[in-house]
Amino acid sequence: MTEEIPLAKPEIGAREEELALEVLRSGRLSLGPVGERFERDFAAWLGVEDAVAVSSGTAALHLGVRALGWGCGDEVLTSPFSFVASANCLLYEGARPVFCDIDPITLNLDPAAVEAAAGERSAGILPVHIFGFPAAMAELEAIAAQRGLGILEDACEALGAVDAEGRRVGTHGNLATFAFYANKQLTTGEGGMIVPPDSAVAAQLRSERNQGRAADMGWLDHGGLGFNYRLSDLAAALGVAQIEKLDEMLAARDAVAARYEAGLAGVESVTTLPVSRGAERRSWFVYVVRLAEEIDRDATIASLARQGIASKAYLPCIHLFPHLRELGYTEGQFPVAEAAAAHSLALPFFPAMTESQVSRVCEALAGSIR
Ligand SMILES: Cc1ncc(COP(=O)(O)O)c(C=O)c1O
Q: CB within 10 Å: which end of the chain, N or C, has fewer?
């Protein structure tokens, strides 16, 4: 029987088991010392002062929107080529996502499109470092500074990416969010992290993730509106173990991506995504290729599936989902994003992927496209 090759696979080993077991035996399943350790280890690895752990990347984005004070009547400039949470987090607070087209190479927000769409009601920019490629932060920060806009970085797919200035994504002093779902560079099963710009925002985030309780309040005291966006200590234990081997896992992802790049080099009708366009470096999250326009993507996916290889149309444009069409968005408004969405295909990608698995996928893909 042919071995199935999944789209993603987490790296869970003995260390994750050991730390998870310690939490189980400790009896402190939430708001315990391991959660705090995960925050400290994450901040130290990233090179920032502080980090606030939450239950998901979506929760991180939601609290980020609230920390920036974006709400009814505010417009936020953002990418239509993203995962839906980066627009939904604005809707949760009554703010309006104003989509701007993307750059055809980086697939990130095109600063010129942001500049063109900015207006009276603009309150901020929400760049997404899509597929782990650093967004054009210097240009976006210049626009934000000139217009007095806030910035919330969606770095949910970009842990470990390095920008053109040589800084890790999420370390610019903006509010930045990360996500730890099972296919991410670092996983806690479900989970997220917010990098706050200062200690006052950090305290607000810690209170809002915990039903509005301040650090010195009892369980039934609430200083304001809050949510249950806590990350359990069991999940945090996985995070602590994952950080210990994060450099290794990122290097393994780089190696798998390089193998794909070599394996697909001669395959007609398939274009790979760049690791860099200049000085920046992508952190490989998914391995997405672009098929030529005339290729039938659905037939390609079906053919790969028959050979035991998972693949996925990746990503659909956000502005075309029903709840965003209700805001007036339609087809044809963002041609670069829509073309990327129409022809992109995610292939199996995970750190433990072997050379022979990558070769099998490349050969199957070459034989499947028509
Ligand atoms: C770009 C982006 N934003 C936000 C999220 C939301 O993260 P989560 O699924 O942890 O809520 C994801 C996760 O898939 C993502 O890829």
A: N
SS3 per residue for 116-172: HHCCCCEEEEECECHHHCCCCHHHHHHHHHHHCCEEEEECCCCCCCECCCCCECCCC
User: First CA to last CA across the chain, in angstroms?
Assistant: 26
157 CA from centroid of ligand 1 (Å): 7
Query: Is 179 a pocket residue for ligand 1 (Cβ < 6 Å)?
Result: yes
Q: How many residues does the chain have?
A: 370
Pocket of ligand 1 contains residue 54 by CB under 6 Å: no
pLDDT tens digits for range 115-155: 999 999 999 999 999 999 999 999 999 999 999 999 999 99
Max CA distance (Å), the chain: 64
CA 128 from chain centre, in angstroms, equals 7
CA-181 nearest atom, ligand 1: 10
Q: Which atom of ligand 1 is nearest to the CA of 190?
A: 10
Cα separations in angstroms, 144 against 66, 107, 126, 148, 153: 18, 20, 11, 6, 13
Catalytic status, residue 184: yes
Q: Is the CB of 181 under 6 A from ligand 1?
A: yes
CB of 85 shorter than 6 A to ligand 1: yes
Query: On the CB side of 146, how many CA atoms lie within 13 Å of its CA?
Result: 10
